[in-house]
Design goal:
By secondary structure, the chain is an alpha+beta fold. The chain has helices at residues 62-77, 111-115; strands spanning 2-5, 44-50, 53-60, 85-90, 98-103. Strands 1-4-5-3-2 form a 5-stranded antiparallel beta sheet, covered by helices on one side.
């Protein structure tokens, strides 16, 4: 496994101790945070708390994870509103998909919840 994290990497250092060798769907429920108003996703998404911060973990193919990571970095550099990318975990065992790691956007809600 390899981690490609954006500096300062100390912000998410505790994330390195998570069970990245397992699919996100199989993680121990005690590690996962239940987020209210969470939207529907076509990918497996889990939320975790590390060092007092909430992070969103999204499992997807490596090319897609790298593309979304780069796009989020560009949006951040341009000062546009978007979630803050922290990094990606790639080369996971048994050909598992990569995981995109972002900071949880507080007070966010899904479009479906907002308009219902």
């Amino acid at each position: 496994m390899r981690f490609v994290f954006r500096p300062p990497v100390t912000d998410g250092a505790g994330l390195l101790e998570l069970p990245w060798h397992q699919p996100l769907a199989n993680w121990n429920p005690n590690l996962v945070l239940q987020v209210p108003q969470r939207g529907i996703s076509r990918h497996v998404v889990q939320f975790v708390v590390q060092d007092g911060s909430v992070f969103a973990l999204k499992e997807m193919s490596e090319p897609l994870a790298r593309h979304e990571y780069a796009l989020l970095c560009q949006l951040q550099e341009q000062g546009l509103p978007a979630v803050t990318p922290l990094g990606i975990c790639v080369d996971r065992p048994d050909g598992q998909d990569a995981v995109l790691v972002t900071r949880y956007l507080e007070y966010s809600m899904s479009y479906r919840y907002l308009f219902s």
